[in-house]
Amino acid sequence: MKRLIASVLFFFMVISMVKSYPDGDIAVGALKVEMLTDPEGIDVRYPKLSWKISAGQKETYQEAYQVLVASSPELLSPEKADVWNSGRVTSDGSIHVTYDGEALGKDTKVYWKVKVWTNHGESDWSETAHWSLGLLYYKDWRGRWIGFDRAFPWEDISTFPTLGARYFRHEFGVEKEVKRATVYIMGLGLYELHLNGQKVGDAVLAPTPTDYTQNVKYNAYDVTTMLRGSTENAVGVMLGNGRYFTMRQNYKPYKIKNFGFPKLLFNLVIHYKDGSKEVISTSDQWKGTADGPIRNNNEYDGEYYDANKEFPGWDKIGFDDSSWLQAEYVQEPRGDFEAQLNENMKVMEEVKPVSLEKIDGDRYILDMGQNMVGWLQMTVQGEKGDTVKLKFAESLQENGELFMTNLRDAKVTDTYILKDAKEVTWEPRFTYHGFRFVEISGYPDEPKIEDFVGKVVYDNIKTVGHFETSDPVLNQIYQNAWWGIAGNYKGMPVDCPQRNERQPWLGDRAVGAHGEFYMFDNARLYQKWLEDIRLAQKADGSLPDVAPAYWRYYSDNMTWPGTYLMIADMLYQQTGDSSVVRENYHAMKKWLTYMADRYMNEDYIVTKDSYGDWVVPPASIEAGTGQNADVKRPSALISTAYYYYFMEMMSDFASILGKQEDIPAYQSMKVKVHEGFQKEFYHEEGFYGANKMTDNLLPLAFGMVPEEDRQKVFGQVVETIEVKNSGHLSTGLIGTQWLMRTLSDFGRADLALKLATNTTFPSWGYMIENGATTIWELWHGNVAKASMNSQNHTMLLGDLTVWYYEYLAGIKAGENSPGFKSFVLDPVFVQELDFVKASFDSPYGMIGSYWERQGKQIVWKVKVPVNTTATVKLPARATGNVTLNGKALVTGETVVKLGSGEYEFVF
Fold it and tell me: Phi and psi dihedrals of 832, rounded to 5?
């Protein structure tokens, strides 16, 4: 029952946050209702529904709604709706509206639509959408897990395994007319599903990765139109290794988890028009082989494909599988079976290479022009046995060869062996690479640049934000951030996509996820990640540094595990969904108690930290050249400041959940930690700790500095930047998360802008000046020791993208109105910028903030979605001659409340 409740609380993100709408919205006049469509196979009986309204008239608010839910589209009318008719409900709620009909059973599909009443009229009914319930309980699954729990003679499962894909197939008859058919599949580690010779769906590298000892996600597909009625059908499934069969076998088993060999559980539930039902499931009557064309596959080393081992038609009726083995029953994974509510990965874009140069012999270097994540599609023609190798890297050495050292022992090579002289187009299935450059060798004749296409792979989520300014450095940083963030969405936020790591480190995304939310529709991804973190918690309360805990790192510190609280808070503030707090509150409280019990001394100092301000820049490029950046500098100041910060956050969480009885303990601890912090770390000269930037930034950002000392401490930050650092930052992963907002909050947005637009070391612009098209792991990533200098990380973005949207554009959720029902528009009109243009597709619709200098005036255009209000704050200097849509404002009016619509201020 606990699992089911968790899913119910999570489901809002699936129904209400996907920005995917049907064509042909029904409207009355200019009033439209848009709604999300068609999530398949969820395990939530009472989902939450959401819709968006658009209208031509300003200041439009929803006053009431009516939702209809029925078992067929034909029954979707107020008179016939047989599942739920909400009736007219007086409410302005258009997100998180809970389905309140009868509890739906397993494998049930329903259809729904909505109409709204506003202060400007009534809409028509929306287009029809649907959702379906999947398999709700363990016993709902039929059949058994199949696989081959062993290596075959041609395979090697030593430290660097060469385990090929497993192929399974089955034929079955469909003798009656089909009404509806749904596949439910768990294919571990990765699967590709085929039915009657066609791939099912457009997902790649599915399903989403988890700690398979805790939970296993299933996917559902409506395959009604793919079945052949009154005839035979064939299903085929390929299994890749993924995270299940670990990429490094028997290598540091004390650190790296291994789960076993690939395995499959498959149910095809067929509903016939005569009312009967049939389930096709995995059994030992299926046939399987490991002797197919994919001879090896994993994330680190690539895919080895021998076309000579292909068996055409294996996924169709009539294929001769007499040489295949009987499928074997295998042990099921230990984790609970759950519907996957976050998106699978998909090929989201294509990139055409910009150059192809020969280096020697049959070796060529292909340049994609962009550090990207995915794989290369190749078109090739040669002779039987020709072997083409594609080796991937992020950069080149001075001699033009691939720079491979920073990839550690990852082989990052795809191999394709031709079977005949026919032209073929090929791409891998069960690997991905982080790369800009590809070394091509063994290609028959001379390759042409048009023979290759880059496939960009990340979670199937939409880009929902746009940001542009008059400064090209700010714009390029934003583009670099987009490419890095997107590429590292892999069913979980990983740190890097190229070397032998690719782990979901918590510390990398603490504040960064907040900025990402303005750029990507990532709420379901991060809600799934909260579950990963919660399930990784030990019984005593300890939280990991990596979740899912593929690497057993439980180092006990405040900053990495503390991301758990910060992501929950971000999701609540940005979406308005309190379930993220409710579901995780107990685990967060348990962790904080654990840390205090073990590491808080009698003076209320948290003495344990692991990483300190990770990867602070060296004093100079020369000082960092060739040096190892993997240096831990534990800081009790950091750990204690964060404990204080989390006490305030837990007080807010308790208030949200109505747990008023918990608040006094949090507030009491907060006071004691603050007293201990001041006594231990504050110096009368006006600084904290060792007077490092981060030492002073944290107490300023967390509100720990007494009022009378705030300017003095902030002055130390400014002096460090302007004098000691000659106008540069000196923060690592932790300090950079609070840098830009704190400078702006204390009136120095101009100094923040200088840091953001610097092109000399250390800065984001320095990365660009040295060829970066994503964000580096290190400020000095071009010269650091190669063991740790990924060129595609996001952790050093800190709060930069938050600052872009919330300060330069001024778009912020209302302090007491999470989810952007009421929001604030309050830009910093930095003198050095000529314009800022930003938009963000919020839960209610598009928010826009576009300001531009025109001579001595500023023209500021804003957009407010239907059913929301915006508090617009004009700069203090705009006290006269301010116009709103051409009409003068009252003199001295600097705060204006607006309903929906588009507006223009001039001042």
Answer: -75, -5
Q: How far is CA 891 from CA 694, 876, 888, in A?
A: 42, 12, 8
Length of the chain: 907
In sequence order, which residues have a C-beta less than 8 Å from that of residue 185 and are 6 or more positions away? Answer: 191, 193, 218, 219, 220, 221, 237, 264, 265, 266, 267
Q: What is the pLDDT of residue 1?
A: 25
Cis peptide before 207 (omega within 30 of 0): yes
Residue pLDDT, tens place only, 438-470: 999 999 999 999 999 999 999 999 999 999 999
| Cα distances (Å, whole numbers) of residue 120 to 123, 254, 867 | 10, 65, 12
Rg of the chain over all Cα atoms, to the nearest angstrom? 28
Amino acid at 830: V
Token pair of 788, please?
């740790």
- 42: β partners: 133
Architecture of domain 141-342: Sandwich (2.60)
Question: How many Cα atoms within 13 Å fall on the side-chain side of residue 221?
Answer: 22
Beta-bridge partner residues of 357: 365
Domain boundaries, the chain: 2-132, 141-342, 347-459, 465-808, 811-906
Is 141-342's fold the same as 347-459's?
A: yes
pTM over 0.85: yes
What's the CATH superfamily of 811-906? Maltose phosphorylase, domain 3 (2.60.420.10)
Quick check: 354 and 368 in contact, CB under 8 A? yes
In tens, the pLDDT along 682-710 reads 999 999 999 999 999 999 999 999 999 99
Buried b / exposed e over 528-556, threshold 16 CB at 10 Å, is bbbbbbbbbbeeebbbbbbbbbbbebbbb
Exposure class string for 462-477: b at 16+ Cβ within 10 A, else e: eebbbbbbebebbebb
Task: Report whether 663 contacts 627 (CB < 8 A).
Answer: no
In this prediction, residue 899 has a pLDDT band, given cuts at 50, 70 and 90, of very high
Q: What is the pLDDT of residue 15?
A: 30
Cα angle vertex 634, ends 630, 637, to 5°? 140
* Cα gap 721→725, rounded to integer Å: 5
- Grade residue 25 by pLDDT with cuts at 50, 70 and 90: very low
d(C-alpha 850, C-alpha 863), whole Å: 9
- Write out pLDDT tens, residues 227-282: 988 789 999 999 999 999 999 988 888 899 999 999 999 999 999 999 999 999 99
With bands split at pLDDT 50, 70 and 90, how would you rate the model's confidence at 13? very low
73 cis-preceded (ω within 30 degrees of 0): no
Q: In this predicted structure, what is the pLDDT of residue 30?
A: 53
Contact 328, 439 (CB under 8 A): no
Q: Can you tell me the distance from the alpha carbon of 485 to that of 102, in angstroms, rounded to the nearest whole number?
A: 41
**Homologous superfamily, domain 347-459:** Galactose-binding domain-like (2.60.120.260)
156 contacts 197 by C-beta, under 8 angstroms: no
Are 453 and 352 in contact by the 8 Å Cβ rule? The answer is: yes
Domain 465-808 falls under CATH 1.50.10.10? yes
At 412 the pLDDT is 98
Which fold does the domain 2-132 belong to in CATH? Immunoglobulin-like (2.60.40)
8-state DSSP, 201? S
Helices (H), 470-520: 472-487, 512-517
Query: For 851-860, which contacts have Cβ atoms below 8 Å and span 24 or more sequence positions?
Result: 851/827, 857/906, 857/907, 858/829, 858/905, 858/906, 858/907, 859/904, 859/905, 859/906, 860/827, 860/904, 860/905, 860/906, 860/907
**Burial environment of residue 871 by CB neighbours within 10 A (0 to 12, 13 to 18, 19 or more):** middle
Report the phi/psi class of residue 892: left, alpha or beta, with left for phi > 0 and alpha for psi in -120 to 50. left
